[in-house]
Amino acid sequence: MPDLTVIAEPARAKLNLALHIRHRRADGYHELETLFAFVEHGDIVRVAPATKDSFTLTGPFASVLAAEGDNLVTRAAARFRATFGGGAHAIELEKHLPVASGIGGGSADAAATLRALARIHGVDPADPRLFAIADRLGSDVPACLLGRTALGQGRGERLLPIEGLAGTPALLVNPGVAVSTAAVFRGWDGQDRGPIGTGDLLTAAQAGRNDLERPARVLAPEIDAVLAALAAQPGVLLFRMSGSGATCFALLENHAARDAAARALRLPGWWVAATALC
Question: Is 19 helix (H, G, I), strand (E, B) or coil?
Answer without folding.
Answer: strand
